[in-house]
Amino acid sequence: MIELRDDSLVFHFPDHHRNAVLSIDFQRTLRIPDDGKEYPLPPGLGRFPLRHVDDFTRRTPPAWKERGGIMLPMYRAEALWLSFRSGAPGFHYVNEYPFAVKVAAGKICALSGNAWSEKLHRRPQDYLVVPEQPWLDGYCVEKGVIRQFTAMPLGEGYTAEEQLTGRAEFGGLQIMVFPMRREVYEARFPEQREGFMEPEYCAYSSNMAMGMAPGGRMHQEIYEDPFNKSDWDVKAGLRVFVHLADAMLWRAITGEMPPQIPLTAREYGDAEGPWFDYKNEGAGAIAGSAKLAALQSILEKANEKGDPPPPDLAPVKSDPVITLKRKKPGKKNRDSFWKV
Question: Which residue in 115, 28, 119, 25 sits closest to 70, CA to CA?
Answer without folding.
Answer: 25
